[in-house]
Amino acid sequence: MKTPRARILVIDDDLSLLDLLVDTLTTIGYEAVGMGDAIDAMSRLKAESFDLVVTDVKMPDIDGISLLKKIRRHFPKLPVLFITAYATPEMIGVASPDGVLAKPFRISHIEELIENTLHHRRINPPLPTRRVLVVDPNDDFRQYLTETLRASDFVALSVERGADALTQLSEGPVDVLVLDTNLGDMSADALVIEVRGLFPQIRIIQLDADLPGVTGIESHSITGPDMIIAKPLSPGVIVDIIRDMSAIPKD
After folding, report:
1. Which of 122, 191, 196, 239 is deepest in the core (most CB within 10 A)?
2. DSSP 3-state percent helix, strand, coil across the chain (nearest 5)
3. pLDDT at residue 250 is higher than 70
4. Rounded mean pLDDT of 199-224?
C-alpha cells in the first residue's frame, strides 16, 4: 500500500532526469521536490520537512556520499536512497544509504524501493538521537572522535575548554559528556562537579592518559564521572561504550 503523500526530496544534477523523476513520483502519488544542487538541497532540508531523500551519487561540488554524511549529521532519522550508475559496492558499503537503485532503472523499481524504505522506518523507527559533547584540548583527537560519533548516528558537539563546555551545556541538552583529564583552563574534577550540580542526568566519561593497561573503570561516585577510560584509545571503542551507556536510563 502506497504511503499517502510522502514528501520526497530528489537531488540530481542531470536536470532532464531530475524533472522525469519528480514528474513521475508526483504522478504516482508522492509529493516530490527536485533540486539540481546538493548544497541548495541541504538548505532546503533545513527549511522544510521531508520523509525521504533520493539522490544521485556522482554530482559536482558535493557528491552523494558526502551529502549523505551531512544528512546523517543533521537529520539522522531521515532515510536516504542512492540512484547511481557509477558507485562501486565498496563505496556504497562505506556510505551505508538506506537503499540503492542502479541506473538505468524502471519507475516500478524505485516505487518499490521507496515503499519498502518508508515501511521499514514505520515498523522499525530509529532509536532516539543521542547528543554527545566532547571536551578535549587536542584538536586532532577531538575532531576525530566527533566525526566518528556523527558517523555512528550521534549528534556530536565539541569544544576545547571547560568553560566553553559549560556554555554549550547551558544552550541545549546533552546526554553524554566526554572530557579529557587535562583541560588547560580548569581541572576535569572541577568541571565534573559543576556539571553534576547543574545537569545531574548527564552521563560523564573522563579520558585519562595515566591509566596504562586499563580500558575503563566504572565509577559510582556521586560527584565523579560515570566511567574513566584510558587514553589513547580507539574512538570506535569509545563510541561502543557511549552506545552501551546511553542505552541504559540513568536513575
Report:
1. 191
2. 40, 20, 35
3. no
4. 74
- Asked whether the bond before 104 is cis by omega within 30 degrees of 0, the reply is yes
DSSP, collapsed to helix, strand or coil, labels residue 43 as: helix
* Cα separation, 142 vs 160, whole angstroms: 8
Other C-beta atoms within 10 Å of 93: how many? 10
Residues 6 or more apart from 60 whose CB is under 8 A from it? 13
Nearest to 97 by CA among 69, 75, 122: 69
Burial of residue 24 (number of CB atoms within 10 Å: 0-12, 13-18, 19+): middle
pTM confidence score: 0.53
Q: Give the separation between CA 65 and CA 71, rounded to whole angstroms.
A: 10
Three-state secondary structure call for residue 106: coil
Can you tell me the distance from the alpha carbon of 210 to that of 249, in angstroms, rounded to the nearest whole number?
Answer: 29
